[in-house]
Amino acid sequence: MIEIMDNIVAYLNSKLPSIVESDIAEDFFIGDSDEELMCRHDVSPLIYKAFMDGSYRATFAFSFYCRSDDVITARQKLEAIMECLNEIRAFQHLFGVAEGTLEVTARPTPISEEEGGTKIYTCAFKLDYLAGD
Questions:
Q1: What is residue 31's DSSP assignment?
Q2: Is the Cβ–Cβ distance between 103 and 74 less than 8 Å?
């Protein structure tokens, strides 16, 4: 599943180079900058169905987080990511999987504010996919 998140970030880098930095970390903000994006594979129940031919269908939940002093900038970055991924919906041979569907499960939402006033926003997605050996 780690490759899927890497492939999603690479896809966003190719579509939104001015918004998505190439050094998006997974699971934590890598620097001490007030302007950063992070992605993470969300903890969720594993939904997995294996088939006789070695292929399987699974669900992958993930989120993007944006830390920013400027609320408008944070929301704009996450909304651009959301709109870019929302255009895909159903696909074949993308993100390293045979086929799948992608949906937004949470629009950009504030989740915390740090002591210096920096705010963190998030948006969430669900990817249902078919992959094989």
A1: S
A2: no
State how far the Cα of 26 lies from the Cα of 37, in Å rounded to an integer. Answer: 9
Taking each helix axis as running N to C, give the angle between helix 71-86 and helix 2-15, from 0 to 180 degrees, rounded to the nearest 10. Answer: 100
Say how far apart CA 29 and CA 94 lie, in whole Å.
26
Tokens of 104: 């937004």
Q: For the whole model, what pTM was predicted?
A: 0.85
HSE of 34 in the Cβ direction (CA atoms, 13 Å)? Answer: 12
Residue 1 neighbours by CB distance under 10 Å: 12
CA 85 to chain CA centroid, nearest Å: 9
| DSSP 3-state of 83 | helix
pLDDT band at 118 (very low <50, low <70, confident <90, very high): confident
pLDDT tens figures, 74-87: 899 999 999 999 88
The whole-angstrom separation of Cα 63 and Cα 104 is 10
Residue (of 16, 1, 6, 25) closest to 79 by Cα position: 16
- pLDDT greater than 70 at residue 21: no
